[in-house]
Specification:
By secondary structure, this protein is of the alpha/beta class. It contains ten helices and nine strands. The protein has two domains: 57 residues, no CATH class; 181 residues, Nucleotidyltransferase, domain 5, CATH 3.30.420.240. Strands 6-5-2-3-4-7 form a six-stranded mixed beta sheet. Helix 3 packs antiparallel against helix 4.
């Protein structure tokens, strides 16, 4: 006999699938879902009521065994699989290709320090992930920066963007190694939200990286109560360092390509608006009535 005990969360994952498949049905799997006080009557019901009042969605899941309705998956696993090139783990630099980078720094004690490289395939309009390097904690921040700087330099990247971490520390460390660092103007949630249409339209090519796939599928979309704004972030106990760096690099590649197309179009229109100068022609002279002298 196998017994599993868990607290309900969002309407996705193994627990939700088991509940939907077996709860209240004639099956060899017994699923019991009930409030916490049903299993432990000694719990303080006043404390439970206070928690539910302060945060109804979280409290209902934690104490009343109600699946949360305010959470949704960021992207479907089938979309990630369709965008992934099987067996492709890294692409070498191609001469003449413009590459961009994005990093998710870390101090080395808990989160990973990740760098990602991408480019835009102008032929088919697809943002391609070329490389992703993750250094897991614990590590020396300076040693990790050196390793990522070496990767970026191998793709001829002289300027990189990343999240707003630890003030000027990332920029100082990368500038020591000949790479300028600029904090992204977009928040993490904005990066995820802007790259999602490209993912769903299969306009990106991902590397075959299990950590990346897991983190992308583990992202959650929720509406912040009282604001109406949407938040996209990893769930409790999860990480999204690899997903953040990769989505940032892919978005940078797409944005750079779009900006280049706009500038080319503006330049073309400007050329059409400039009046052409008339070509110089020699004045015509009439020799009628002139004598010829030898």
């Amino acid at each position: 006999m196998i017994i599993g005990i868990s607290t309900v969360y969002r309407r996705a994952g193994l627990l939700f699938a088991k509940w939907r498949e077996h709860h209240g049905k004639d099956s060899d799997v017994l699923v019991i879902r009930a409030p916490s006080v049903t299993f432990n009557p000694t719990l303080d019901q006043k404390e439970i009521a206070r928690d539910v009042e302060l945060d109804p969605d979280r409290g209902a899941a934690e104490w009343l065994s109600e699946f949360r309705s305010d959470l949704a998956d960021f992207v479907d696993r089938r979309v990630i699989d369709a965008c992934t090139a099987p067996g492709r783990h890294e692409l070498p630099r191609i001469s003449g290709t413009h590459y961009v980078g994005f990093v998710d720094p870390s101090g080395g004690s808990a989160d990973s320090f990740v760098a990602a490289v991408a480019h835009m395939d102008a032929g088919n309009g697809i943002a391609v992930l070329d490389a992703v390097r993750e250094i897991r904690a614990p590590f020396s921040p300076e040693v990790a920066t050196e390793a990522h700087a070496t990767l970026l330099t191998s793709y001829r990247i002289k300027s990189v963007r990343g999240d707003k971490y630890a003030g000027d520390w990332p920029s100082e460390q990368f500038e020591k190694r000949g790479i300028s660092y600029e904090a992204s103007e977009r928040s993490k949630a904005e990066i995820y939200g802007e790259i999602l249409p490209a993912l769903n339209a299969h306009k990106v090519e991902l590397l075959d990286n299990p950590r990346l796939a897991s983190q992308l599928c583990g992202l959650e979309r929720r509406v912040i109560r009282g604001t109406g704004r949407e938040s996209i972030d990893h769930g409790p106990g999860r990480h999204d360092d690899v997903a953040n760096a990769v989505c940032g690099a892919l978005l940078e590649a797409s944005t750079a390509a779009a900006a280049w197309e706009i500038s080319e179009d503006v330049l073309h229109r400007a050329r059409l608006m400039v009046p052409r100068r008339p070509q110089w022609q020699a004045p015509r002279r009439s020799f009628r009535g002139l004598g010829v002298f030898g």
